[in-house]
Design a protein that fits this description.
The complex is a heterodimer of chains A (382) and B (195). With 382 residues, chain A is mostly beta strands. Chain A contains 1 helix and 29 strands. In chain A, 7% of the residues lie in helices and 43% in strands. In chain A, strand 15 and strand 16 form a beta hairpin. Chain A is globular and about 50 Å long. Chain B has 195 residues and is α+β, with helices and mostly antiparallel strands. In chain B, 13% of the residues lie in helices and 30% in strands. The chains are: A mainly beta (382), B alpha+beta (195). At the A-B interface, loops of A face strand 4, strand 7, strand 8 and strand 9 of B.
Chain lengths: 382, 195
């Protein structure tokens, strides 16, 4: 073998070895025991539903205008439907370029959000409300959602609209908001519907809607961590932009602050707390600066129970309790997201990447997001 | 005489008034509390670039996809408008409103994004409470935001530099639009956020 042949061959072998190494690393990222949430999506595939191996949805559940302030998909309380958020891009919008450089003018339609309904019994998948996103399903089957004043999300135009509630999935919609604004539906707390209002500067307010035209501000400049299992209280986080970072326990019925925990007085690993956590028994899990944090809510006290560290620089979103021993969340990755599976006793977190070869659709990466209903109470909970 | 007039005209045209400058913002993300906002400009066709910079803050986390919390996503932004006396519920005074931006996850859109400070619609300060007033620049943590870029200004209770005033002056003196309000047309005074 001449040197002329040997060098390219060695180069090829080295490249092949490094490629195999990458694949191995991906496989090693999911050690035995790392599990995804109970119900979850990977791209258009819905997995983990009892009685269903896997369900293929008509569109990929995504929430571009809500991030993870609201779940991408919510199962109905009776288990028959899954309602989910979809997004149809009307023209490409390259994030690296400005609208001007892409020839996009103010008012140009960019995308059309919609809420779709997948009927698990009939196997159908249809548009439920076009020009809408974010929904919440109450235990008795009432469904709430935000619907835009116009169907399309347009360049330079605030996507304002109203919150509507239907007593049942096929019931007539009733408008619950009096003032058109930017709202994101978060979840039911008993008979009250908790929604976000997004103000200039992306400031978030948590509002309680008690019926048509009955609106209260539950928290200004705050995010909803979780609703108590009985639906009577809510844990709300406040970041450092409006004073000391803290979590407040709020009575949903009248907005009374029942307790507060100043986060600057606890383990510095907590730092700030994020929204979209979970509440099980007297424990609440939430995203934190270093991974996850668990609070104990005892009567009118909130205290730090423990912290769980994620890999450096890895933010964990939408943590959910799974049984009594685990917490799962998700984190973004180059392939569109991975689940983070944490042991509550050891506080050790590992990555779970179900369907690692999944490809995204409609230009999106293969998102891996949990499917859950943050509304409380749910059947079996008091 | 006619030649002298022509020469004077050409000289004025080429050296040019401030409006002949072409300006744009940049934002170099370092930390939520301490990044750098710059106004840069050139006098076309000369490629020579000039700039002024100020400390700026953005977000409370470094996850650019976290709505209401993460710092401003990277990329080029068109400006939607500039106001001297903007009167929003959270954002007031001298502000620049920039376009919505898809973050690095390729899906989530950050919206309602501004360059602003903490001041009233009349460009003054409202410092009345013991800890934090939303329209009073009292302390270091005022650099935090829900996602916008924030720059400091002086207040009766703290002596921060007048960075908002300096940025506003640089914008108007060196190539920023003289118009105020929402821009109907696309705007050349863009913002670039470094990744």
């Amino acid at each position: 073998m001449t040197a002329r042949m040997t060098i390219p061959l060695c180069l090829f072998l080295a490249l092949a070895a490094s490629a195999c190494g990458s694949a191995q690393t991906e496989r090693e990222a999911q050690p035995p025991g790392a599990r995804p949430p109970a119900v979850y999506t990977v791209g258009r595939t819905l997995l983990g539903l009892p009685g269903h191996d896997r369900v293929t949805l008509a569109a990929a559940p995504v929430t571009p205008l809500a991030g993870w302030l609201t779940p991408v998909a919510v199962p109905s309380p009776d288990g028959r439907f899954v309602a989910y958020n979809a997004w149809r891009e009307l023209r490409e919008d390259d994030p690296a370029l400005s609208w001007e450089d892409q020839g996009i003018s103010a008012g140009d339609p960019l995308a059309r959000p919609s809420i779709r309904l997948h009927d698990l019994q009939a196997g159908t998948d249809s548009a439920y409300v076009v020009g809408a996103f974010s929904l919440a399903w109450r235990g008795d089957g009432a469904i709430a959602y935000f619907k835009g004043a116009n169907r399309d999300y347009r360049a330079g135009v605030r996507y304002v609209g109203d919150v509507f509630v239907r007593a049942s999935v096929n019931g007539p919609p009733r408008r619950w908001t009096e003032q058109t604004d930017r709202y994101i539906v978060a979840g039911w707390a008993g008979p009250s519907l908790l929604v976000y209002r997004v103000r200039a500067g992306e400031a978030l307010d948590v509002l309680a809607l008690d019926g048509p035209g009955k609106r209260r501000v539950l928290a200004s400049d705050g995010g909803l961590v979780a609703i108590s299992p009985d639906g009577t209280s809510a844990l709300v986080e406040h970041g450092p932009e409006a004073g000391q970072p803290r979590v407040d326990l709020i009575a949903v019925s009248n907005g009374t602050k029942l307790a507060s925990l100043d986060l600057s007085t606890v383990d510095p690993a907590v730092g700030v707390v994020g929204y979209a956590g979970d509440w099980q028994g007297d424990l609440v899990v939430a995203p934190s600066a270093s991974g996850l944090v668990v609070f104990r809510v005892a009567g009118s006290r909130v205290e730090l129970a423990r912290t769980m560290r994620a890999a450096a620089g890895q933010g964990v979103a939408e943590p959910r309790f799974v049984g009594l021993s685990r917490v799962t969340g998700w984190t973004s990755s180059s392939s569109g997201g991975a689940f983070v599976d944490c042991d509550r006793v050891s506080a050790r977190c590992v990555r779970a990447v179900p369907l690692p070869d999944a490809r995204g659709v409609e230009g999106f990466p293969a998102w891996r997001r949990p499917v859950y209903n943050p509304s409380r109470p749910q059947e079996g909970e008091t | 005489m006619r030649i002298a007039l022509l020469a004077a005209f050409v000289l004025c045209w080429t050296v040019g008034p401030a409006s002949a400058a072409n300006g744009w913002w940049t934002f170099d993300r370092n930390t939520n509390l301490n990044s750098t906002l710059s106004w840069k400009w050139t006098y076309p066709p000369s490629p020579a670039e000039y700039s002024r910079s100020w400390r700026g803050g953005s977000g409370t986390t470094m996850d650019e996809c976290e709505i209401g919390r993460g710092w401003l996503p990277s990329g080029w932004y068109a400006q939607k408008g500039h106001w001297d006396h903007y009167d929003g519920s959270k954002v007031k005074g001298r502000v620049w409103w920039v376009q919505d931006k898809t973050c690095r996850d390729g899906s989530t859109r950050r919206t309602e994004l501004f360059i602003h400070s903490e001041e009233t619609a009349s460009n003054s300060q409202s410092c009345t409470s013991t800890y934090d007033d939303p329209f009073c620049w009292e302390r270091e943590s005022d650099y935090y935001s829900s996602g916008c870029i924030k720059v400091a200004r002086p207040s009766p209770v703290a002596s921060f530099p007048n960075d908002l005033g300096a940025a506003h002056a640089a914008y108007h003196d060196y190539g920023g639009k003289s118009a105020h309000g929402a821009y109907d047309t696309s705007d050349a005074n863009e913002l670039y956020v470094y990744s």
